[in-house]
Each structure stands twice: as structure tokens, then as C-alpha cells.
């Protein structure tokens, strides 16, 4: 008997029929002799609808009350799922985040898990019940308030429960069959991976891949949790995310070059990630003297914006001034622009330019460490397609470029083909959202 933690996203429990389908899958796992703990998201687009409603009532919502509102979505789906399981003749008990022992810091809207005390969950499992937990939410002991974990919080909830309960695997269910070499909605010929390293998955998630959220992957890597990304709508075995020291399950085809058994055969590139959620700010005419970049990014940091890529031009000899460009989430851009504009006289730059029509393309692969020519392949493919590169950033296992947003999808397909990642058939997205 294994202990399996399963997580079902919003598209998996979008309506009554979907909830009954998920309940059957959970019951089938229980019938196979396994203990089951389930973390569930709000139904469909419930969270977005609640956010819209809150903004209609109050354009600036009190963070505490917004968390109280948003956490209700998961409570609805957890109770309905437990009811569906009961109707199939199995005992199921639903728990809110606080009842499940998800202890967080006091940050509303983006709380971080500081401890998990799943006493009531363990008691329910010992009594033979299937456990259903509301994802995305927790409880702060000091303020005694409900908190939410931010986007992807249900993934993080599931991984945290798996770590605390010492589960054998954490299955993350969505509407795609696993982790692909690219977003199948952008690159139809994307190929499903049997195995991906947690290191590669962190880079893919950080650069736009939507199947798993970066905080969940970080938590799994830190606590040694094996993740299996699967589809609610098919019976495929999905993709296993392996942290250091883990080996692929026996069910994985051992001839696959991405298994731990044959690291020397590891492909150079694991996947191509795309991201249309970023904007670019250019600070024009910055005095090219020591300390000015520090001043600029201290201002940006105080605004709460999260900077991604940074490029500084060579200064003009005639003026002694330079331009500094950086990318950040579109949602943070207005905050950063206001903060910089307020300090323009003190910093001494000439003007600001905001561009929200960009796209970021990233190529990720652990094999980059030991293979040359990866950059040349990327740049040649983009050149052949007539795509202009505006910014470049690299890490040990990643190359990212910023291009025009309208060019991103075509660029992804060309680059995907250039690295030999295309599959023989078109990938399937069952519900259309990628989650």
C-alpha cells in the first residue's frame, strides 16, 4: 500500500460532471489499495470571477477580506468532491487549509508555508477515509487569519502535504498528459517527456511553462518529493520530475534518454518555454557613473516589482550617458514606472520607455553544460525566421531571449524544430487552458 497525494486543478473540477469524473479516479486509486490525500483547486474560473466581483465592489480590496473571499472557492470544490466520493460508497472527509494544518506566514495574497501539522489528516487516513484538502490556503498562528498562497498555491499545497505525510508520490493532475517540450497550444508538435530533472523544471516553470508552478517545484526539490504530472482526462503515466538522488520508476521506459539510468545520453535541450506576461522598461540617459544602476534597482525593489532580465548599453562618449533596460511582470510595471518617475530628478536620467508588447523565449536543458553550439543553433533558427532579438540572458542550463510578442509563437515553433524536439503527432490539450 502506498500513500498518494493527488492535486486537481480548476479545469479538472470545472463542473458537476468533471467532479464526478475526478471522484471516480480517486476511488479507483483507493480500490487499488492506496491511501489517498487530495488537494483541490476552485472550480473552473471561480477565483478569477471572485476577483472580478471584489474589484466591482471595491477597486482596492482589503487584503484580509480578499483572502477570506478567495479561499471560499476551494471550500466549495472540496465539499462537492467529498460528496461525490460518498455517493460511490467510500468514506471521504474534507478539510480547509487551517484544519489540515497548513501554517503560513502572515502575508495575505502570497503567503509562504512555514509548517505543516497534518494531525487530523493522519487520523482520517488511519480510520480508512479518503482525505480532501482545500488547496491554495493556510492559516497564520499569530494573526489567526486565513491566508492564500497566490497563483499555483494548490500545487504547493499538494507538495507540502506530500512532504509532511511522507507520501510515495505527489500526482499533479491538469488538462495535458504531462510536461511537454513546449506549450502544446503554441507548438502543436511538442513531445511529452517521460522524465525531467527538478533543475530543468525550475527553469521551465520560471520562464513561462504553466503545467507546474515554480514554488511547488522548489518545495519538492527541497523536501525530496517525487512529482508526477498527469492528465485528469487520460490514463497515461505522465511525466516524473526527479530531484537529485531520485531514479525513475520502473514503469518508465528505461531506454528513454532522459532517465537517470543513462545520464550520458541526456538530450541537450529539455524544452522551449514561452512567456507573454512580461513588459520591458528602458531608463534612457542614465549618467554612466558608479552607483547609478544601484540607485535605479533599489527604487524598483522598493516598489515591489520583480526584475527578470537586465541589459545596459555602452555609454555614448559624447554625453557620458547610457540606457538600462529590464523586464518584469506586466502587473508590476506601473508600480515600477511610478516609483522611478518620482525619483527622476535625484537619479538624473532623462526619460522612461514602457513596452508591454514583448515575448520571452527560453531554451532549457541540463545537457547545455557539456555541449557547445547551443546558442548558435538558437540564433541561427531565429535569424532564418526573421525574428529580431532585443535582449539576451543566460544561466548554466538556460538561454532566454526577448522578441516582439507577435513573433513569439512562430519563433517557438522554429526553435523547437531546430533542436530536434518535434514529435510525430500533435499534442492534446483536453480542456484548453494548460492547467
UniProtKB/TrEMBL annotation:
GO molecular function per UniProt: aspartate kinase activity
Enzyme Commission number(s) of this protein: 2.7.2.4
EC top class named in words: transferase
Catalytic activity: L-aspartate + ATP = 4-phospho-L-aspartate + ADP
Origin superkingdom: Bacteria
Functional description taken from the UniProt entry: Catalyzes the phosphorylation of the beta-carboxyl group of aspartic acid with ATP to yield 4-phospho-L-aspartate, which is involved in the branched biosynthetic pathway leading to the biosynthesis of amino acids lysine, threonine, isoleucine and methionine.
Family recorded in the similarity comment: Belongs to the aspartokinase family.
Protein name as it appears in the record: Aspartokinase
Organism, scientific name: Microbacterium memoriense
Amino acid at each position: 500500500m502506498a500513500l498518494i497525494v493527488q492535486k486537481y486543478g480548476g479545469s479538472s473540477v470545472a463542473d458537476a460532471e468533471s467532479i464526478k469524473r475526478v471522484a471516480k479516479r480517486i476511488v479507483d486509486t483507493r480500490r487499488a489499495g492506496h491511501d489517498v490525500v487530495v488537494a483541490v483547486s476552485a472550480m473552473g474560473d471561480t477565483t478569477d470571477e471572485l476577483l472580478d466581483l471584489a474589484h466591482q465592489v471595491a477597486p482596492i480590496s482589503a487584503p484580509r477580506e480578499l483572502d477570506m473571499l478567495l479561499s471560499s472557492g476551494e471550500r466549495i470544490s472540496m465539499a462537492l468532491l467529498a460528496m461525490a466520493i460518498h455517493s460511490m460508497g467510500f468514506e471521504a472527509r474534507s478539510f480547509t487549509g487551517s484544519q489540515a494544518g497548513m501554517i503560513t506566514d502572515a502575508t495575505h495574497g502570497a503567503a509562504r508555508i512555514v509548517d505543516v501539522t497534518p494531525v487530523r489528516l493522519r487520523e482520517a487516513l488511519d480510520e480508512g477515509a479518503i482525505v480532501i484538502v482545500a488547496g491554495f490556503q493556510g492559516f497564520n498562528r499569530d494573526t489567526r487569519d486565513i491566508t492564500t498562497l497566490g497563483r499555483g498555491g494548490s500545487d504547493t499545497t499538494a507538495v507540502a502535504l506530500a512532504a509532511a505525510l511522507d507520501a510515495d508520490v505527489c500526482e499533479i493532475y491538469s488538462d495535458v498528459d504531462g510536461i511537454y517540450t513546449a506549450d502544446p497550444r503554441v507548438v502543436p508538435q511538442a513531445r511529452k517527456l517521460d522524465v525531467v530533472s527538478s533543475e530543468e523544471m525550475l527553469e521551465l516553470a520560471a520562464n513561462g511553462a504553466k503545467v507546474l508552478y515554480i514554488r511547488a517545484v522548489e518545495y519538492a526539490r527541497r523536501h525530496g518529493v517525487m512529482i508526477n504530472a498527469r492528465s485528469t482526462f487520460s490514463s497515461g503515466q505522465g511525466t516524473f520530475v526527479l530531484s537529485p538522488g531520485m531514479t525513475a520508476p520502473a514503469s518508465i521506459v528505461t531506454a528513454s534518454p532522459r532517465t537517470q539510468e543513462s545520464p550520458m545520453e541526456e538530450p541537450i535541450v529539455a524544452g522551449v518555454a514561452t512567456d507573454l506576461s512580461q513588459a520591458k522598461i528602458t531608463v534612457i540617459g542614465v549618467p554612466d557613473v558608479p552607483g547609478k544602476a544601484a540607485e535605479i534597482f533599489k527604487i524598483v525593489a522598493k516598489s515591489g516589482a520583480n526584475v527578470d532580465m537586465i541589459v545596459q548599453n555602452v555609454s555614448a562618449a559624447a554625453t557620458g550617458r547610457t540606457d538600462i533596460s529590464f523586464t518584469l511582470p506586466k502587473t508590476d510595471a506601473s508600480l515600477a514606472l511610478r516609483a522611478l518617475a518620482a525619483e527622476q530628478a535625484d537619479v538624473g536620467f532623462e526619460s522612461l520607455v514602457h513596452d508591454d508588447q514583448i515575448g520571452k523565449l527560453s531554451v532549457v536543458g541540463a545537457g547545455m553544460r557539456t555541449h557547445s553550439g547551443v546558442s548558435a543553433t538558437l540564433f541561427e533558427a531565429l535569424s532564418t525566421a526573421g525574428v529580431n532579438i532585443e535582449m539576451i540572458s543566460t544561466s548554466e542550463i538556460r538561454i532566454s531571449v526577448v522578441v516582439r510578442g507577435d513573433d513569439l509563437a512562430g519563433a517557438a515553433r522554429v526553435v523547437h524544430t531546430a533542436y530536434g524536439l518535434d514529435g510525430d503527432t500533435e499534442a492534446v490539450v483536453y480542456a484548453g487552458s494548460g492547467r
